[in-house]
What we know:
By secondary structure, the protein is of the alpha/beta class. It is 43% helix and 14% strand.
Amino acid sequence: MNRRRKPTASIVSMGRIDRIxxxxxxxxxxxxxxxxxxxxxSLETLVPTLKSLQSAxxxxxxxxxPFSDPIADGPVISQAMHRALVRGVTxxxxxxxxxxxxxxxxxxxxxxxxxxxxxxxxGPAFIEQLSDAGFDxxxxxxxxxxxxSPLAEAASKRAMSFTMLVAPTxxxxxxxxxxxxxxxxxxxxxxxxxxxxxxxxxxxxALVARVRAHTQLPLAVGFGISTAAQVKAVLQxxxxxIVGSSLVRRLAEGDATLAAVRAGEFATSLLTAK
Length: 274
């Protein structure tokens, strides 16, 4: 008789992401979590950009693995992924770049990757490859809850964080299921719709409270967080602010060799709000 697999009751991770957030909490600090697209403006600029973000004070960096049909990404990130794919960037070349520089980086590195790419890479085997390269966590934004258990377990075995996304419209029942699979931190979407820069600061107080009722994991808020003022507004309630489109846009502007410099300057400006 076929039975639907029940979620794992407790998936425990004690990796770099956990230590980073534990250190932040012990000193009453909050985290900046920039998002970059691997391969834009070039794969060669990825490691210098990570080093620059680290020097500026970022705690964790999310690295988007380019995919031809990105989920929920607005034009800035979608176009950056398209440019990276046109340049021939692949998961393999990204893993090689990270592996070559992991010993020089102390920040947490989390892969943001489509379920399709994870599946093509062998599911749990792909997560092992991420770990071997030096990634500390993974976010699969389009993964189905019915197939997530073996992936979460694979991450747990490698002490990698496994982060699920909670939308503003998520029911209490769904939130409970999402956080049950999460380790390291939970990703809260500040807004509905696509990623992208916004002029107004999101009101995340109620959403943070709803999710906090289900978990003590750190809560990171993203989607439309673009300015120092918005970072400050989010960090009144959340443990981390995720900044994506505004950084990705700046990295693509101007001379590619100066992308890392622009990344560091922008991260520094955002951190002044903390």
